[in-house]
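User: quick one, fold this
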Amino acid sequence: MRVGHRRVGRHKALVAATGVLALVLTACGSSNAADDVTVTSFVTGSPESSAVASEPATSSAAASTSESASASTSASPTATQSGDGTVQEGVAMPSGFVPTKLKDGEKPPQFIVVSFDGVGWHEKWQHWFDVGKQVPFHFTGFLSGTYMLSDQTKMAYQGPGHSPGNSSISWNSPADLPVEIQDLNQAIDEGNEIGTHFNGHFCAGAEPSGNQWTTADWNSELDSFFSLVKNVKANNPGVQMDDLKLTPDMVKGERTPCLEGKAEELFPALIAHNMSYDSSFTETGISWPKKSPQYGIWRLGMATFPINGTGKRQITMDYNFYYTQRNADSKGVTPEESAGDQAQVLATYNDMYNATYNGNRAPLILGNHFNEWNNSAYANALTDFVVSKCGQPDTYCVPFRDLIAWMDVQDPAVLAQLQALPAEGA
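Assistant:
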């Protein structure tokens, strides 16, 4: 799936109508009668504002608390944000997570990796920062580079095959820029990770888009992203803002707009920009991530998994739930109906957690957006899930960077055994 990018003026309490420019529905192969539904779309304006899952069953895995990860930083130096395979065992990540090698017979931690595409809405930044104060929760924000410009300076960006100043997502006002910089800096200071969601969010219907782009195009788009980040002050003269703390060496991963693109075209561009992971290409069921054999890029895509109470498989991203439940349209949906949708999404997250926690312990990779779709059903479901699970025994809610650091310090033979385990929910 993938949904697109949302953008909204950060100071506005009212929410604009959702504008969907492209919507493609495809069916992926499935081993049963239920189809894997993939939605590809992008959003140019901000969207408007069941079953009960069981608790995890007690298992031998839960009885033996994993010592291979720790949230303590009291005696540990802090690693850089690189996540490029150079992190040392026992060295705390910026989030405080300490990756350590599994002992013989020890089960791996249960990782929950939450990410958000676009990350251009102040109130939502603050919501998730507040959640991180309630429970040990850190996340990855995939930044759209166009948020480093405004409607007055947009001509500084030109996407591959597009005219200068063209973007499928709306532009900041100059007044929004300092707030976005402050939010990004706070995210970094609090130990979260920033990756890239590229720039103009060109998808099917706004070609050339990711599915048509060559390696040269991806290189150009990444060059633009890093330039926009580096030169945000120079590109916006007269706007008073703090220095942006995000540096190129911190950006190690990405998710493509609408999950578009071909690995053989994209991955060489990631290598050229010293990046180590992709979160665009989905997997059937929940399994341990692997590197691309040809390119050495970690493939950290979302999973397809049965929606609670239906048996119907879909990619576990907020917009996919929204499309399945409401055809991506909140008009006329009552609060009671939204509450039912929220309960179903939360139950699906719990199903995923129960399957992996009591099974292969593969990381849960949950893709999201800053949104209020369906009366905030999806943001509320994710909040409830995170608050209930982060900090539970053997459970760590970390950015992609920290998951990679943990995998990098494992014995290769042990990691290979985990990667060979059957996928949960496949």
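User: anything notable?
Assistant: The chain has a mean pLDDT of 85.
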